[in-house]
Amino acid sequence: MDLGLTGKRAIVCAASKGLGRACAFALAREGVDLVITARTAGPLEATAAEIRAESGVDVKAVPGDIATEQGRADALAACPEPDILINNAGGPPQGDFRDWDREDWIAAVDANMIAPILMIRAIVDGMIGRRFGRIVNITSGSVRSPIPTLGLSNGARAGLTGFIAGLSRETVRHGVTINNLLPGPFDTDRLRDTFAAAARKAGTDPETEAERRRQTNPAGRFGQPPEFGALCAFLCSVHAGYITGQNVLLDGGAYRGTM
């Protein structure tokens, strides 16, 4: 299927690894020119070089923290009129809410709620004026089914979800859709870090914890980042103009609700 994206421009946040990287590759394969961001320059530049070599699209690597004003300004200076925005940021740490102070909550909300909203504010009116725009926010399966140890993430991402529910209904008539992708367990560094922490707590090893988690998932496996990237690219396509305000869960069937 031709997604109709050749020549479009995208900003992909936190794109040096994991799910952001997968989204950047998927868009590049559809002919989208990219600005990719991440906090660490080395891995970001390496990802940009790989994308260029594979797809031949224009890729600008812009190191910086998208949760900061400077990080956002740098990304937008490199691509002031994107057709596509993929909002993404590393999740807050796990823990017990009793151990978190106000600064912990502010950091989580800044990265996982306020930063995406400010990026949207900066570009959405331009998209409306051009009658085309696709915004995808990478959030978490915990929005649908909260995880007790991820309270910072649960709270911040739920706030973003509520905001998007309203805004997405205002922009769609102008050709601008806004949706959220909710990953469950995907084979990423963050998931492996989770297993390492669980192993230390249980006195086991990371692979034991990983296998335990695999067996509890109806799919019997973890998601692969390219699967995530492919769905992201479809939501950005010309074929997805009637899909907006949705929270699309990719978790191998782990969430057992009917709604």
Quick gist of this model?
The chain is of the alpha/beta class. 47% of the residues lie in helices and 14% in strands.
The counted number of beta strands is 7
Query: What composes the largest sheet?
Result: 7 strands, parallel
- The span between the termini is 29 Å
Shape: globular
Helix content: 40-55%
List low-pLDDT spans.
none
Structural class: alpha/beta
The H-and-E topology, N to C, reads as EHEHEHEHEHEHHHE
Tally of individual helices: 8
What does the radius of gyration come to? 18 Å
Strand order of the largest sheet: 3-2-1-4-5-6-7
Tell me the strand percentage band: 5-15%
The overall pLDDT average reads 96
Please tell me about this protein's structure:
The protein is built from eight helices and seven strands; from the N terminus they run βαβαβαβαβαβαααβ. The protein has 259 residues and is α/β, with parallel strands linked by helices. Helix 1 crosses helix 8 (225-235), helix 4 packs parallel to helix 5 (151-171) and helix 6 packs across helix 7. The two termini are 29 Å apart.
Layout of SSEs?
Layout: E1 9-12, H1 18-29, E2 33-38, H2 41-55, E3 59-63, H3 69-78, E4 84-87, H4 102-130, E5 133-138, H5 151-171, E6 176-183, H6 189-202, H7 206-216, H8 225-235, E7 247-250
Parallel strand pairs: 1-2, 1-4, 2-3, 4-5, 5-6, 6-7
Helix pairs in contact: 1-2, 1-8, 4-5, 6-7
Index terms:
259 residues, alpha/beta, seven-stranded parallel beta sheet, 14% strand
